[in-house]
Amino acid sequence: MKNDLSRRDFLKKGATGVVSIASLGLLGACAAGAAAPTSAPTPAPAQGSVEAPTFPFVWHELDPLAVEKRTYEGFSKLGGCARTVFDCILGMLSEEYGYPYNQVPSQMYHAGHAGYKVGTLCGSMAGAFGVIGLFVPTEDQDAMVMDLAAWYSAAAFPMYQPEKELITTVSGSVNCSESVTKWMAAAGVAEMSDPSRIARCAGVSADVARKVVEMLNVYYGFAAASGDGDSFECGENQYLGTAAGYGGDVTVRVTMADGKIAQVEVLKHSETPSIGTNAIDALPTQFNGLSTADEIDALDAVSGASVTSGALKEAVKAALAQVK
Fold first, then answer.
1. Whole-angstrom Cα Rg for the chain
2. pTM > 0.85: yes or no
3. What is the DSSP letter of 309?
4. pLDDT tens digits, residue range 188-206?
5. Residues 270, 184 share a domain
């Protein structure tokens, strides 16, 4: 039988399992667990009582750090990366504002876990692209999707590591197969069921959710774009370098003397207090006396702040590359 639902029928019949956490009777962590589709259905509204949402949905500023934490905690409960990213962002808006955010069933992204089971697009990106598709006018969607994809391909994941420190890797791709297998090989993890692999992918989901929220906050004027308006001066034998950190760009000014680094100053960062800032505080003096990229790479990362440590090293190398 042809299953051709009108928009009104969808709103009536699609109320089961909507993204609203409150409607599922849960508080705190992200929405329902994997068994949510078998729960009792929510009564459908009377015909004609719900207006079809207008496009694009209105964006309300969200706290990226709160989204990050919520996404990580919801990873296992929601059955993976795609649904978790989508549900946790829409879930926060649903709890605060209700309609129309509570009209979109997050179960539609269940199939996105494990790269849609064939190792293609990372599910966290699928969930993020779905969020972009709801909140960004069509004429600007391509640019935002491409920016997010470029960031993902170059990022060292996982950035968010609340439970234990994990090795980070750069996938060079948005595909699950490259992202996960490169990390597993580097970490010496053989099974997908390994707790470290699960923590890693939960962290990646949190990273992606945070990033897309930051992008939407900037797009709608709630926050300034990273680097906008920055102007740092350099004197003789001083050079600027910038690299992507955990919370945004990390910018340093490197002073050279007799062909070696004499001083590294951190001019700008948005790293997490008492975590990333541990590297900001401890690492700069360790660059003194170094003169090559290999020497910089050989420096040990500050425990618990590997992402920020890596950003500092890359920023210093970028500055060093300008020395004639």
1. 22
2. no
3. H
4. 999 999 999 999 999 999 9
5. no
